[in-house]
Amino acid sequence: MEPNLPPGMELRAIELPTPDGVIQGRVAVTTGPMRLTGLVRIAYEVTDALVARGVQVEDQAGRHISCRAGCGACCRHMVPVSPPEALALADVLDGLTPARRRVVVQRFARIVETLRAQDMTDELLAPRITGEASLPIARRYFALGMACPFLEDESCSIHGDRPVVCRDFNVTSPAEWCRAPYEHDIAKVALPLPLAAPLARLTAAVAGIEPCLIPLTLVPHWVARHHPLRRREWPGPELFDRFMREIGANPAAES
Questions:
Q1: Is pLDDT at 28 greater than 50 in this prediction?
Q2: Helix (H) or strand (E) holding 100
Q3: Pairing of strands 214-215, 80-81
Q4: pLDDT score, position 40
Q5: Would you say residue 60 has pLDDT above 70?
Q6: According to the model, what pLDDT value does residue 161 have?
Q7: Is-contact 46 54, C-beta < 8 A?
Q8: CA 74, CA 179: separation in Å to the nearest integer?
Q9: CA angle 45, 50, 52 (to 5 degrees)
């Protein structure tokens, strides 16, 4: 981050131990009140750094990422997002142009109708901390072949705002295998610290709700049930420090 920060922001240094070495960096943190969505940008920056390190390790071993724009098979999985990410995605949805928002909202609605017809919504929204694609409900979901509402021409239309689990899903196996992931041994780039679960645990601790991960396609449904969380605020530095402790990082104020 550049040192010239807007008022009300400060740089914080991060040291995050991983099996492949320590990740070091700096992030800008709000010094005043902060919504849970303020943690999302930080989580994305940390995830991107972890992914870059993981990809580097794969490259050094002669294995290369096969994911490409236009390959949207993974965008039909049950994508689990943390509550802060769900709130951030609701903000993204609200920020679309009215015409664009109508199209995307209709896609969400059709998916909810399908899930209700399959009697899957309650199970998908049951509090749990797991993103395991091997869960029976995840296999059932993928079998329905429903594309993410933000998918356009087999590419993510909100790439810069995509969730943690989308950022950290990179494979070195043939891209076409991802169309039948339960029939092939998908070689996913190992990430030492997926951040969706820590975000969910932190939300549970500060907001007094059960820890949960929410399927991306049910985000509007979940956010409508937890609308007060969209505007609730906590002291920014305190929220940041708690998140760093949750992921095992060492935060410090920038000198």
A1: yes
A2: helix 98-117
A3: antiparallel
A4: 97
A5: yes
A6: 96
A7: no
A8: 8
A9: 95
Encoded tokens for 246 = 């949750």
Burial class (CB within 10 angstroms; exposed 0-12, middle 13-18, buried 19+) of 2: exposed
CA distance 197 to 146: 24
Task: Check: CB of residue 64 under 8 Å from CB of residue 43.
Answer: no
DSSP annotation of 186 reads -
Distances (CA, A) of 104 to 86, 107, 110, 233: 15, 5, 10, 28
| Residues above pLDDT 70, as percent of the chain | 94
Contact in structure between 209 and 191 (CB atoms under 8 Å): no
Residues 234, 255: Cα–Cα separation, whole Å: 24
Could you give the percent of the chain with pLDDT greater than 90? 62
Question: DSSP of 148-178, one letter per residue?
Answer: PTTEETTEETTGGG--HHHHT--B-S-GGGG
Token pair, residue 198, equals 């820590």
Among 169, 176, 158, which residue's Cα sits nearest to residue 80? 169
Question: C-alpha distances in angstroms, 101 versus 90, 107, 138, 253?
Answer: 11, 10, 27, 39
> pTM higher than 0.85, yes or no?
yes
Buried b (16+ CB within 10 A) or exposed e, 108-134: beebeebbeeeebbeebbeebbebebe
